[in-house]
Amino acid sequence: MRSAVLVGIKHCGKSTLGRLLADRLSRPFIDSDEELEKTYFLQTGRRLTVREIFRALGEESFRTLEAATVGSLVSAEPEVIALGGGAVSNPRLTEKDLKALGTIVWLDVPDETAYRRIAAEGLPPFLADAPDPRRRFAEINAQRKLRFARLADVTFKMDRELAPDEAADSLAAILEEYRS
Asked: Among residues 123, 59, 125, which one has the least CA distance to residue 92?
């Protein structure tokens, strides 16, 4: 059995659903953003969030650190991995690199739902600095959706308002069927 690798736009539910899914599948849960924060701390002695690291390093250096972190997640033991929203568009990560992690599961959330969740948490630098954040989000999301669709072994539509537990149960069943 391979690891389940959750991908999708920022705030689509990768971490929340990933933790619940890991429980149901009796696997460890790994969040690539949390791993990136740990790596940054080990390198610098500074505890920063992913957003703060992005601002501190700039996009180029951030993407280099992100690629190294994601590359370190390849494991022989099956896990549930939540990848940062931008990892699939990182030019330092190839399709082969991402597929090496495991079965790619795209959490496909409607654009408006994703933007509403992102705005509620405070816009990240790549949107906050744009003249029209909503338009910039739509552009980025359109590009990433093409990549998510191309990479996905499984697409999990998040267009229904399922409670997180229900979504985890449903996705666990889909993954069990996918394995067979």
From this structure: 59
